[in-house]
Protein 1
Amino acid sequence: MQKLLLLIALIVCIVDADQQPKCPCDDQNDCKRIMTNWKTNQTIGYVLESDSNIWSTFKWNKLTMIALIDFHQPKLMCLAHHNKIRIMAFGNFTLNDLSSSDKMHEWIENRIKEAQNNFYDGINLFIDDPVEPNSTFSQRITDFVSLTTKHFHEKLPGSIVLFNAPFSPKNEKGKAVDGKNYDYVAISKSVDLMIAMDFDQRSQSFDEPKCLAGAPESLYITIGSLMAYKNIGVDLNRMILTLGFYVDEYLCIEYHQNYRCIIQPYNYRGANCSSKIANRIPWNVYKTMIGQCWIQVWDEHSNHDIYTYLDNSIYGQIKQYWSDYPAIFKKMILIDENQMSGIGVWMLNYLDDKIWSQLPERQ
Ligand SMILES: *[C@@H]1O[C@H](CO)[C@@H](O)[C@H](O)[C@H]1NC(C)=O
Ligand SMILES: *[C@@H]1O[C@H](CO)[C@@H](O)[C@H](O)[C@H]1NC(C)=O
Ligand SMILES: *[C@@H]1O[C@H](CO)[C@@H](O)[C@H](O)[C@H]1NC(C)=O
Ligand SMILES: *[C@@H]1O[C@H](CO)[C@@H](O)[C@H](O)[C@H]1NC(C)=O
C-alpha cells in the first residue's frame, strides 16, 4: 500500500512538473506578459524584499518596470501587472557560473523556469567579478549575456533582458571601473537595454595623499561617464541611468578647512581609498536623522549637498554625509538631452513622498 501511494505521488509530481504554473492573481489576465513599449520613457524601480506595507507606497503611474532583488512575491507580480508594469528577476551571476558550457546552460534554464513559474517579463543581469581586458572570461561574459538574451527571447516571447553596468566604463585612471573589463559595446548590442548604475562612483578612489569623503554620484562625473560610454560606441538611446537613493556616512579621522573630511584608507581592487568604508543609509531613514546641529553646505565640485554632523556621544567625533537628493531634476535633463531610455531607482524601498513626487509620470 505504501509503495503504491509513493508511486502515485511520484506520478502526480511528474505530471505536475509539466503543467503550466497556476496563475495566482484574481484577474487571470494579470499573469500575461506586458507587451507595451520598453524602448523609451522607462522608469525601472529596484525592490528589496518587502511586503505590502512598502508596495502600498509605490506610485504605479511613475513606474514602467520593477526588478526584485532576490525574492519572489506572487501578490506583487499581480499588482505590478495589473498596473501594466513589467516585473523582472534580478539575475546575479559569477564567473563560477561560466566555468563550462553546461553550467551556463543550466543557469539560463533555471532562470527561464523561474521567470515562467513567476510570470516575469524578463531578467536584469548583473555580475561584479573583475576580469582582465580581452581575457577568456571577459569574452565568456559577452557570450553568456548574448546566449541568455537569445534564450529568453525564444522561450518567453516578449520578454526583455537588461544588463547592469557600472557608472562608467573607465575610472579616473583610465582603467575599467572596479576591474570590470567587460566588452560593454558588445554587451549593449546584445541585450535589450543596458543600465548604468550611476552611484558608487567612489568605490575606487585615488585620493592623494590621504583618503577623502566624497559624493557617491557627482553630476560632473555622470556627464563625463555618459560621454565615455558614447565614445566607446555604446548607444545611449538604449541605456537607462539608475540613481542611488542612499546617503554615504563617513567617519572623519581628521577634519580640515573647507569641509575636508579625511577618512581611513580602504583597499578596493587596486585603489587605496573606497566608499566601501562608508555606512550606506537609505534616504528615507537618513531624512529622519537630520537635526538642528547639522551643517549643510553645497559642494560645487560634485553638485552635491554635504551634511556634516558633530556627534556628541563621543567627544569631537565628526561624521560627514553625502547625499544626491537635489540632483534628480538635473539628471533627468541629462537623460532627456542624451535621449536615453529612462531613469532607474535604486531602491524603491528608500524613497519618501517628496522623491516620488519628483519622478516623472509615465502613464
Ligand atoms: C516620452 O515623454 C515625452 C515627454 O516627457 C514625450 O514628449 C514623448 O512623446 C514620449 N515618448 C514616447 C515614445 O512616448
Ligand atoms: C545580487 O546583487 C545585488 C546588487 O549588488 C545585491 O544586492 C544582492 O545581494 C546580490 N544577490 C546575491 C544572491 O548575490
Ligand atoms: C581589447 O579590447 C578592446 C575593446 O574591448 C580593444 O579596443 C583592444 O584593441 C583590445 N586589445 C587587444 C590587445 O586585443
Ligand atoms: C597605494 O598606496 C601605496 C603605499 O602608500 C602606494 O605605493 C601605491 O602607489 C598606492 N596605489 C595607488 C593606486 O594609489
Protein 2
Amino acid sequence: MTAVPVTEDAVPPAGNPLVVLENVNKHFGALHVLQDIDLTIGRGEVVVVIGPSGSGKSTLCRAINRLEAIDSGRIAIDGKPLPAEGRELARLRADVGMVFQSFNLFAHKTVLQNVTLGQIRVRKSEKNAAEQRARDLLDRVGVGSQADKYPAQLSGGQQQRVAIARALAMNPKVMLFDEPTSALDPEMINEVLEVMRQLAQEGMTMVVVTHEMGFARSAANRVVFMADGRIVEQATPEQFFSNPRSDRAKDFLSKILHH
Ligand SMILES: Nc1ncnc2c1ncn2[C@@H]1O[C@H](COP(=O)(O)OP(=O)(O)OP(=O)(O)O)[C@@H](O)[C@H]1O
Ligand SMILES: [Mg+2]
C-alpha cells in the first residue's frame, strides 16, 4: 500500500478525527430519533453524551456501531465509511468496542472464554495468544483471578469489567459505553468508572453515555448534550456544568444535580 501524501490543507479542522458523523438522520416509524447529527470525535478524545431519557443517546451509539441502520447521512470510522453489511462490516465493527448497561456476557462460557472468543473468531488469533491477551486484560481490569469462573459467579461490577476486557481484547480504535454503570449496585459503580478513567488516561478514544456527572467532570474532554434527537449543546465539562447555554440543558442539569 502506498502512503497518501498529507498536505497541510488535508488536515481537517478538528485535528485528528477518528469518528465522523455528518448529517445523520434516523427514524423509528414517525419518530425522528436522530436529527441532523454532526459530530466529530478526535483520536484520544473522551466524549460524554448526556440528555433526557428518549433523547437518542443509545440510538446514536448503536448507529456508530451499525447495530442500527441510519436513514441518511454518513458515518466514518478512521476515514472509512461504515459498510452496510458483510465481512467489511464485521471487521469495522470489531474496531468499535461496545459496553452496554447489561453486560451481555455469554452465560455458558467462562470469563476467559468470553474474552478469547472474539479474538479467535474475528481477529483470527491463535488460542494461546488470545488466552494470554485475555489474562493480561483481565488483570488490568482487576478480575484476573476470576478467569475460570462463569459470569453468574461474579458480581455485577466484576461482570462489567469482564465486558470491558472483552471489548478491549479486539483492540478497538474507539470504545462506546452506553450507561455502563446504571445497572450496578452503588458500591460497584466506582470500580467500573475507575477502569474507564484509566482507559481514558491511556489515550483510548471513548464515547460514554452516562449519568455519572463526576466522571464527566473528571474524565471527559467534551460533553455533548442531546434532547429530542438533536445535539443541543457541546462544551467542555467546566463550561457545560458551570454555564450551560440552552434552556434544555439548564433544565436537565437542575433536575439531575438537585435530586
Ligand atoms: N427499536 C426501536 N423501535 C422503536 N422506537 C425505538 C427503538 N429504539 C428506541 N426507540 C425510541 O427512540 C427514542 C430514542 O431512544 P434511545 O434509546 O436512543 O434514547 P436514550 O437517550 O438512550 O434514552 P435513555 O436515557 O432512556 O436510555 C425513544 O423515544 C425510544 O422509545
Ligand atoms: Mg439509552
